[in-house]
Design a protein that fits this description.
This is PDDEXK nuclease domain-containing protein. The protein has 168 residues and is an alpha/beta fold. It has one domain: 3-Layer(aba) Sandwich (Trna Endonuclease, Chain: A, domain 1), CATH 3.40.1350. 35% of the residues lie in helices and 27% in strands. The chain is built from six helices and six strands; from the N terminus they run βααβββαβαβαα. The chain has a six-stranded mixed beta sheet. α4 links the parallel β5 and β6.
Length: 168
């Protein structure tokens, strides 16, 4: 269901980007993002608000897979996977199932948690008891391995050096 890892190089972000920056960049490059996610994805909304008896919840990205006829909740995390993220994603999947999904038309909602890194065993334990279909996938937006990236000067320094007329 989900491509893993999703390659987000087109977003021009750094490892230090905030979740909101990642979300904004993804929606700015919506077509590229949907293509990277896989076939059949359509955009429903970002920061989709749910009011559950006075408590507010916001789904980072809500997609619809037209090939599978189901909603797909995408939760974004900039760090390493933590078990509590699975609980949060499960709540969002259940809310979309109850509030939006029409069971006679739509397949059950799927949750996808995109995070920068994960421990496979921790993910398995966190998802083992989940009733809803959920996946945890990683994303990347830097193709170079960390050691090579760290050995290079910052992008700003390279850009400045290339644009400085004294270097011509």
């Amino acid at each position: 269901m989900v491509k893993d890892p999703s390659v987000f190089d087109v977003l021009n972000l750094t490892q230090r980007s905030a979740e909101r920056d990642l979300e904004q960049a993804l929606t700015n490059r919506l077509q590229d993002t949907l293509t990277e996610m896989g076939r059949g994805f359509a955009f429903v909304g970002r920061q989709v608000r749910f009011d559950i008896d006075g408590d507010e919840f916001f789904v980072d990205l809500l997609l619809f897979n037209v090939l599978q006829v189901r909603y797909v909740v995408v939760e974004l995390k900039i760090g390493k996977f933590k078990p509590e993220y699975a609980g949060q994603l499960g709540v969002y999947v259940a809310m979309v199932d109850d509030e939006l999904r029409q069971p006679h038309f739509h397949a059950p909602t799927v949750g996808i948690l995109l995070c920068a890194d994960r421990n496979e065993r921790v993910v398995r334990y966190a998802l083992r008891a989940a009733a809803a279909p959920m996946a945890v996938a990683t994303y990347t937006y830097d193709k170079l391995p960390a050691a090579e990236r760290d050995a290079l000067p910052p992008l700003e320094d390279l850009t400045e050096a290339l644009s400085d007329p004294a270097n011509e």
